[in-house]
Each structure stands twice: as structure tokens, then as C-alpha cells.
Amino acid sequence: MRIALLSSMFLALMVGVSSATNAAPVAETGVPVVAAAASPDVQVMTINLNTADEATLQRELSGVGAAKAKAIVAYREANGAFASADELLEVKGIGKAIFDKNRDRVAVN
Q: Which H or E run includes 48?
């Protein structure tokens, strides 16, 4: 009986320690989970505003949905080729915030 009692107490102690260990909060290490800086080997894909179709603009540019992609193509058809990437600000619906997010992704070559 004494052995059964000791075995039960040991089992209860081990379960309690195991639960406490798994439930303990992890100490902050100050190391970010996701690195903010991209590797120098990673290249940002640039989109040519003068040749890209609506689907490409929508897929590759941040904050550009179907309506804005259509507006970019319509602007290009009405006014001719983009002379500079800054001209994208003239397109209805494209503001400074969207342009700044995509500044490194657009080109007019």
C-alpha cells in the first residue's frame, strides 16, 4: 500500500511539474520573430507602367485592386505612355500613400 501511495504521489507531482512547465510564459528575448529587412539577394520586381496589363498591376502593386488597375490602364490609353513613375499620382484613385508603397516597384522603361 505504501508503494502504491508513493507511486500515486510521484505521478501527481510529475503531471503538475509538466503542466507548470508547459504553461509558463516565455521570457521576451528582444529578437523579432520576422526580420524587417530583406536579404540583399532578394530583388524587388519592377512593373513597367507602360506595358503592364490590369491583372499584373492588380497582382503586383500593393493597394491596387481591380478598379485602380483599370484606371491606370485607362489613363495610359487616354494620355499616352507614362513619362515618369511620378505621373502615376495623376491617376484617379492613386494617392501619395499608395504611390509611396509602390515607388520601388514601378518603372517606365
A: strand 47-48
